[in-house]
């Protein structure tokens, strides 16, 4: 089943203790699309500038990602520069140039309209809603957001959240959105705002899913579910880990006939798996070079990391 | 199989957002003993003052904990006062009175000498080693420590670690001990210092075990294992959560015939279970009132929280 994703396609310059990369292909929609492409068909909606060349186009094409919704505008693409030299868990932003993204008005190609899944990556909630409203018949809507929208565009965000089924945010964002320091109370509050399910990401500690009675057809809310992150001896570049998690998570869900608790839980593992690959190299380097076998092998390691009984002999 | 534990038996005054408790029975050896007592026989070595009365004695007696190694000294027991008002994840120490603990010289009753398990709770590594050396024939030695000993008594600690089989410390302590910011590299370094296995506690995110080839008879180091903590809507008092984890963990191991990877993993879950009970009430209140059924029920919730396939129908 096809996923349409709207978000940023950008260029990043990143410094980490492992080194530096200049103007690499990046952006939430890029990480999401590449991660999801290993599971299902992906269609991207974004805007890029004249610096987006055949070389970048080929990355999407190689992974079968539909770019007919990728608008080309005069000027430069969204650019971000950040440093993780002080703290691998949190980027210090050194420069943000919105460029062509400043006047982004998402247009949905007709060929995208039969997508059954929609992911609203972290952009202005007004734009997220505009896309959501033009695709009223999708089966499942996933979404992301960040502190800036929660703090300064709260009423717009709350309006958008009414149309999101599964929200993926981090600990800080969840607590900020709910206005409480307890993570469980925060989750319950967020689940009254629209989302049926909430995935709270904990960085190196994995992610926890919280469910409402509306999460599944059964009308019963399962206990929370916690998926691990892989303990890694070196995190080369954490950029895009959360978007890759979302791509693996949503991509797996879209590849399955029904959203059951079992599918949701496995999707959390696939999210962690894709995030763990992303941070092994700069930019989307590792994400471009995966095989489905490597993904399944790492899924088995995630299982061994958390399950009392070993499946391997 | 019996565990001997050496550590502090103390009184605490604690303030948290949920309220305050004055001079309640506490101390690492107390939390450890109570948690472990649900799984196996426990023998405690500590020193208390004249403020330790029949009432406190009865708490140990009710749980079948052997207190013949509990020395009575003139003066007051170890007293600690702390506040979690600003941060539930980290105590602010307001007062520490060592009192009778200042001249503690652990003596091992002869009746303790056939203990097969020894746990060295967080005290001066010189005292830990003194106990360890007097019990050369134990089957397994567990240990804990803290930043103060790592920073200011490093050479003593390193000498003591040579006699510890399973070390239980938190993220910060592990990184500090190894002198590296990467948690996996830190774990590998610590596993060269003596401990065969390392359990790194992550507070609300659970704990991760790292293994060396010496961890089990097989001579093969399993992948790391991550146990969850329970997402709780209210943490009343986090004091003693780590010691209760150690008690549940080590108590379960001592109740089993052999230390296999499966036993170690289940022990991690029981550790998390006992920690999750402790923080539900002030002091040792909850830990005093448990049943084995409640423990098994929560173990099942921990399984559901982490396992892809549900065991309950």
TrEMBL record, chains A, B:
<feature type="domain" description="Carbohydrate kinase PfkB">
    <location>
        <begin position="35"/>
        <end position="285"/>
    </location>
</feature>
<dbReference type="Pfam" id="PF00294">
    <property type="entry name" value="PfkB"/>
</dbReference>
<keyword id="KW-0418">Kinase</keyword>
<dbReference type="InterPro" id="IPR029056">
    <property type="entry name" value="Ribokinase-like"/>
</dbReference>
<dbReference type="GO" id="GO:0016301">
    <property type="term" value="F:kinase activity"/>
</dbReference>
<dbReference type="InterPro" id="IPR011611">
    <property type="entry name" value="PfkB_dom"/>
</dbReference>
<keyword id="KW-0808">Transferase</keyword>
<protein>
    <submittedName>
        <fullName>PfkB family carbohydrate kinase</fullName>
    </submittedName>
</protein>
């Amino acid at each position: 089943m096809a996923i349409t994703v709207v978000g940023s396609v950008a260029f990043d310059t990143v410094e980490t203790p492992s080194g530096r990369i200049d103007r690499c292909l990046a952006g939430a929609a890029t990480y999401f699309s590449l991660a999801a492409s290993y599971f299902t068909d992906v269609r991207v909606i974004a805007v890029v500038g004249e610096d987006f060349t055949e070389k970048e186009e080929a990355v999407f094409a190689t992974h079968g990602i539909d770019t007919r919704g990728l608008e080309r505008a005069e000027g430069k693409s969204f650019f971000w520069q950040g440093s993780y030299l002080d703290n691998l868990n949190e980027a210090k932003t050194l420069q943000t140039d919105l460029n062509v993204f400043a006047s982004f008005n998402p247009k949905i190609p007709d060929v995208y309209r039969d997508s059954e899944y929609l992911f609203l990556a972290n952009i202005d909630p007004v734009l997220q809603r505009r896309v959501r409203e033009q695709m009223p018949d999708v089966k499942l809507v996933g979404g992301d957001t960040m502190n800036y929208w929660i703090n300064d565009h709260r009423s717009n965000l709350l309006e958008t959240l009414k149309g999101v089924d599964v929200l993926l945010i981090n600990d800080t964002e969840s607590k900020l959105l709910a206005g409480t320091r307890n993570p469980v109370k925060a989750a319950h509050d967020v689940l009254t705002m629209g989302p049926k399910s909430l995935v709270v990401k904990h960085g190196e500690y994995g992610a926890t899913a919280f469910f409402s009675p509306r999460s599944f057809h059964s009308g019963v809310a399962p206990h929370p579910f916690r998926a691990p992150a892989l303990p890694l001896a070196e995190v080369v570049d954490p950029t895009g880990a959360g978007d890759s998690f979302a791509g693996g998570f949503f991509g797996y869900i879209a590849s399955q006939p029904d959203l059951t608790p079992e599918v949701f839980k496995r999707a959390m593992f696939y999210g962690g798996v894709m995030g763990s690959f992303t941070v092994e190299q700069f930019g989307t380097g590792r994400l471009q070079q995966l095989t489905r076998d490597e993904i399944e092998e790492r899924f088995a390691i995630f299982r061994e990391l958390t399950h009392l009984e070993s499946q391997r002999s």
